[in-house]
Amino acid sequence: MRKFTAVLAKGGAMLLGSTILCTSGTALAQQSDTNDDRDIVVTASKREENLQDVPLAITAIGTERLDELQVKEFQDVVKFLPSVTIQTLAPGFSQVYFRGVASGENANHSTSLPTVGTYLDEMPITTIQGALDIHTYDFARVEALAGPQGTLYGASSMAGTIKLVTNKPDTSGTYGSAGLELNTVSRGGIGGVAEGFVNARLSDRAALRLVGWYRHDAGYIDNIAGSRTYPTSGVTQTNDDLVEKDYNTVDTYGARLALGIELDDDWTIRPTLMGQIQKADGSFAQERSSAVTRSLQTVQYNPERGDDKWIQAALTIEGKIGNWDLTATGGHLRRKTLTDSDYSDYAYFYDALFGSGAYLYDNAGDVISPNQYIQGVDRYRRNFGEIRVASPADARVRFIGGLFYQRQSHNIEQHYIIDNLSDDQQVPTTVDNIWLTKQQRVDRDYAAFGELSFDITEKLTLTGGGRLYKFDNSLVGFFGYNNPGFSSNPVYACQGPAVVDGSPCTNLDKRTKKTDFIHKLNLTYKFTDDVMMYATWSRGFRPGGINRRGSLPPYGSDTLDNYELGWKTSFGPVRFNGAIYQQ
Predict the structure, then answer these.
(1) Cα dihedral sign for 478, 483, 489, 492?
(2) 576 burial via Cβ count (<10 Å: 0-12, 13-18, 19+)
(3) What is the maximum span of the chain, computed from C-alpha positions, in angstroms?
(4) Does domain 4-582 sit in CATH 2.40.170.20?
(5) What is the β-pairing status of strands 160-166 and 116-120?
(6) Most buried pick, 245, 393, 406, 530, via CB within 10 A?
(7) Are residues 90 and 306 in contact, defined by beta-carbon separation less than 8 angstroms?
(8) 372: β partners
(9) CA–CA separation, 43 and 325 (whole Å)
(10) Spatial separation of the C-alpha atoms in residues 502 and 412, rounded to whole Å
(11) Other beta carbons less than 10 A from residue 574's beta carbon
């Protein structure tokens, strides 16, 4: 287990948000921080409501509490959310799970989408690879919605939803804050954080907010010296030039620029631009073999790294038509990841078990080292739009509903490389590639959604909701070897010419689509203003997808039904919330 020691320094003036309140999933409820009894306002139901008035299992962590907990990145946030777990392979490669629901997703480009939807303000930012590893500075709060959220949040919110809500431009004044941190890691190196923001009042109705950060995460895993001899070729491989102490460092830097303009008393426009670059070196897995002498060591024979760059542009327009609220929001996200991975362990065991190294040679016909490494490039793009209306929140009959659209594409490029591989063994259009993946995945989602609430009495409320959705997903391109002796899927099995740049031809071209409907029913009873109980029957879904193998048909969409009985209570500064559920 790693231990961190940090020295913090901060200055400036900052508006502070709310403290933490927690709900749970399995009759395990948590008590709020009794040092802060301020109300937390959340937007989980796509309205601004007090946390205690929303009949959902929600955890909300506000600005002040995020700062107290020294939360700096997305995976730090998850540690403080009940019912939520995270699996992190390396920076930028994380999968989030709610209530233990983890079915199938493994960050492979052709498999199913995650079961948890992640939102940055109004925009979904979930990708096949997982959630963005966002530096969580100057955030208003984090909301975690446990259980299926299919009616309002749609695809990939089958098990739950996480909302990361940023602080908005503030017209009340000009102020800012800056912070510095220096930290050390037990048996590791030295890291640090520099971050700050400025909120500038431009006029009575306009403000600008600029946020910036840099973070260096110290390494704590040592790549120690090692050697191996491949059985069939007799080639000996060493890693002398890669030996390094604390070699898995991470550097993260980024910025956010937001503009808020109040056109009049009813209409507001908020454009936002946010981007981040993260560079990780080394491996984040320790080895369990006789090659190492203690924990936090590994033996890697090829350079390993991961670069993750993304930028998001978003626009939100809020206003009123009569006494109804209207929200129109849209955005564009681009993400590019570059990875270098050591594949020599697999190469060694392929050689030991099957003698594959004896069949690898250069253009002169000489046997070469079977050593393999992977170079990957993933390019993501997402276009998103949603428009919705909401009736007055104080009416006896209340409605919220809208239309949703998104298109996300994933350009996949994976090169499995053996240096000096002969021309007749490498995949055409490549150099030294024994295997190539060049594919284009496109996921399209369309939906109409709504929820209607009716106060049967002053204490009893019935809510019904539904979402009519359609998904249309495709995967096209090439994957395979050149030499037919290596695989049942060589180049010669192609079905047609290349449609993805850089591929030799096309041996995969599949599509799946479906239109369906999901529902939600909720009955809420308020015993007093401070005591509520609710029962919910809800369904979440995840779109279907493509099986790469030609003999296998596409797989259908998943659904998850949730039966939940929950309560929310307040006793002065103490709040006791919880839920019992079956899924």
Answers:
(1) positive
(2) middle
(3) 87
(4) yes
(5) parallel
(6) 406
(7) yes
(8) none
(9) 14
(10) 11
(11) 12
Output the pLDDT for position 108. 65
Residue type, 213: W
Q: Kindly report, residue by residue over 169-208, the tens digit of the pLDDT.
A: 999 999 999 999 999 988 889 999 999 999 999 999 999 9
Q: C-alpha angle with apex 519: 524 to 576, nearest 5 degrees?
A: 30
pLDDT of residue 527: 96
Chain-centroid distance of CA 190 in Å reads: 27
Ranges of the chain whose pLDDT falls below 50: 1, 3-4, 13-37
Q: Which residues have a Cβ under 8 Å from the Cβ of 362 and sit 6 or more positions away?
A: 368, 420, 421, 422
What's the token pair of residue 560?
């998850």
C-alpha 455/C-alpha 524 separation (Å) is: 9
Q: Please, are residues 386 and 330 in contact by the beta-carbon 8 Å criterion?
A: yes
Token pair 């690879």 is at which residue?
129
Question: Is there a contact between 218 and 191 (Cβ–Cβ < 8 Å)?
Answer: yes
Full DSSP string of 328-371: EEEEEEEEEEEEEEE-HHHHHHHHHHH-GGGG-B-TTS-B----
The CA distance from 566 to 569, in Å, is 10
Can you tell me which residue has the tokens 């060694």? 348
Q: How far apart are CA 167 and CA 134, in angstroms?
A: 14
Question: Is-contact 89 106, C-beta < 8 A?
Answer: no
Per-residue 3-state assignment (H helix, E strand, C coil) for 392-446: CCCCCEEEEEEEEEEEEEEEEEEEEECCCCCCCCCCCCCCCEEEEEEEEEEEEEE
Query: Cβ distance 195 to 239 under 8 Å?
Result: no
Q: How far apart are CA 403 and CA 129, in angstroms?
A: 26
For 51, the 3-state DSSP assignment is helix
Among candidate residues 295, 298, 290, the one with its CA nearest the CA of residue 243: 298
Measured CA distances, 529 to 53, 393, 540 (Å): 9, 16, 30
Place of tokens 């749970």: 24
Secondary structure of the chain: what % helix, strand, coil (to 5)? 5, 55, 40
- Per residue in 226-265, pLDDT (tens digit) is 999 999 888 999 999 999 999 999 999 999 999 999 999 9
CA 272 to chain centre: 19
Residue 497 phi/psi, 5-degree rounding, is: -70, 165
